[in-house]
Design a protein that fits this description.
Length: about 550
């Protein structure tokens, strides 16, 4: 393996050198995140033996005409707390060669891909979560005529600095009817149809059950646009796939996602719904957490950016959930009531996730018992258990040419027993208010203030937070915030989580140095989460691109 890797690197730089003579271009980026840790028993921060941990990477991509090649070097010495220790070490886990000509796009090596909405197949990198399920193999995309795109791939998925045991194969076709058929070229209604098929292969070496070695899944999708209206939907079905995540039951899986939207200047509305049933799809039936995911199941909730609003994020439940989300955007014109001189933006958002209805099959009185069909479920029936609910309102108003305010109210219902898999905690109810004021003092100086408060009678009770950030464009930014768990029942744990940072940016280079305490919790992006342990220490970051 090492010889093959060294050979690839040699050919990469040889090709880059040769093509550079004919006008090719090399570009990329670099990032290093390091932290010096101090033990802090009060917040639960462990004693880190190495004292300093580090995550770093560098991308190099060369392009010349129809040819491109790239590699990414990664180093974890050792991984920052909260990242899987299997990342420990250094290497080049991502490298590729790509050629594109006359509608044919061929990639060998590593690549990312997504079919449709991703509910059947999506490989991607989310560095903040430590997630990278890139394929290593072969990918082909072909456009035989305008409006038609065909894709096929085969490969294994990245598992830290190795590859998972399963082989994934997939094909996708998408047709834009208006581009493909001349009679529909000028039609007001635009229609795109698509379909995918994905299978995985993994040997059956289980001593107890007879497991399917080939698991196939298919999906169909449609996207319709007419004037201000849009509709897109995708349905996926997967054959029985007994695994660690579904307790080895022999039940088919399915997923349906539907989005309806309407927009015009000053007004927008979206309504989305989904149903997921036993749709955990991985290239290794024994994998868990974020390892070797073939598909992506969106959370269909607002991705909150304010710290206290994001204290209880939602994690998608692939074994079964029914959810919906509605969003309404309004722009109140200037001089109208509540509009003021500059106008006001208002956004309403509501999302909810419930269990699916489950009944026991005739051969057992226990739902989900291993080695059986598991359960049966009415497709249109919502389960009784509430997983998550989020209602929030955001108002953005410009008070003057120099002062703008953003105000949020967020109400969340959070079933910790289900979302975090921690039985015994129950369901939490929280109310959070946020006021952010941005004051443009001069053309180069800006002061941003955030005041946040979360009220709850559950978990660790209420929190308050204050943030100040002073920016001197284009180089300097100084920020400090304090997150205070003042409502904790234990007076000794009414802790101030203080953090201060200084950031310097020049052209494509950015340096950041800070010190602070990090509370223990979870971080989620689009319904995919990782656990973040408590920490105390100095944080250093540098990034650059070329």
């Amino acid at each position: 393996m090492k010889k093959k890797l060294l050979l690839f690197i040699f050919y990469f730089f040889l090709a880059a050198y040769c093509f550079a003579q004919s006008g090719g271009a090399l570009h990329g980026n670099f990032q290093l995140d390091a932290q010096y840790y101090r033990p802090d028993s009060l917040i639960g921060a462990p004693d880190v033996k190495e004292k300093m941990l580090m995550n770093g990477f560098a991308n190099f991509i060369y392009e010349s005409g129809n040819f491109s090649a790239g590699l990414r070097y990664e180093s974890y010495l050792n991984p920052l707390l909260g990242f899987d220790p299997r990342y420990t070490g250094s290497g080049i886990p991502y490298r590729f060669l790509r050629y594109n000509n006359d509608g044919l796009d061929v990639t060998v090596g590593n690549f990312y891909e997504q079919f449709g909405s991703g509910i059947l197949l999506r490989s991607y990198e989310e560095r903040g979560l430590g997630l990278d399920n890139a394929f290593e193999g072969l990918r082909i995309a072909y456009t035989p005529r305008p409006g038609i795109t065909l894709k096929a791939l085969a490969g294994k998925q990245r598992l830290y600095f190795a590859l998972g045991p399963g082989i994934v194969r997939g094909a996708d076709a998408e047709v834009s009817l208006n581009e493909t058929f001349k009679k529909m070229a000028d039609a007001k209604t635009r229609i795109i149809l698509g379909g995918s098929f994905v299978s995985k292969f993994q040997k059956d070496e289980d001593p107890i059950y007879i497991l399917p070695e080939n698991v196939g899944a298919g999906s169909g999708r449609i996207n319709i646009q007419r004037g201000n209206y849009s509709l897109n939907a995708e349905y996926a079905h997967k054959i029985n796939d007994p695994s660690f995540n579904n307790s080895f039951i022999y039940k088919d899986g399915e997923a349906l996602i539907v989005n309806l939207g309407y927009s015009k200047p000053g007004f927008g509305f979206t309504l989305a719904g989904k149903r997921i049933d036993n749709m955990n799809f991985r290239s290794d039936r024994s994998a868990s957490v974020n390892d070797l995911l073939i598909n992506y199941l969106p959370a269909m909730t607002r991705n909150h950016t304010y710290a206290l609003c994001a204290l209880y994020p939602y994690a998608t439940q692939p074994n079964g959930e029914m959810g919906m989300q509605a969003e309404l955007f309004l722009k109140i014109k200037p001089q109208k009531p509540l509009g003021g001189k500059y106008g006001t933006d208002v956004a309403f958002n509501y999302s909810r996730a419930n269990s699916i209805d489950r009944t026991t099959p005739s051969d057992t009185n226990v739902i989900g018992v291993s080695g059986t069909e598991g359960y049966r479920s009415d497709f249109l029936k919502v389960g009784d258990q509430l997983y998550f609910e989020d209602f929030n309102v955001e108002v953005t108003h410009k008070f003057s040419s120099k002062v703008k305010g953003i105000f949020d109210y967020v109400y969340i219902v959070y079933n910790k027993d289900v979302i975090q898999g921690s039985p015994g905690y129950g369901t939490f109810y929280t109310h959070t208010g946020v006021a952010e004021i941005i004051w443009k003092i001069t053309s180069k100086k800006t002061l941003r203030t955030e005041a946040q408060h979360l009220f709850t009678r559950y978990d660790k009770k209420s929190w308050a937070m204050l943030l100040e950030e002073f920016t001197i464009a284009p180089y300097w930014s100084i920020a400090a915030f304090d997150m205070y768990n003042y409502g904790n029942d234990d007076p000794d744990h009414r802790i101030h989580y203080f953090t201060g940072t200084v950031t310097f940016t020049k052209n494509a280079n950015r340096f950041s140095l800070g010190y602070g305490k990090q509370r223990a919790g979870i971080v989620c992006v689009g319904g995919v989460c990782r656990t973040v342990p408590a920490s105390n220490g100095i944080i250093f970051s540098v990034s650059s691109s070329f």
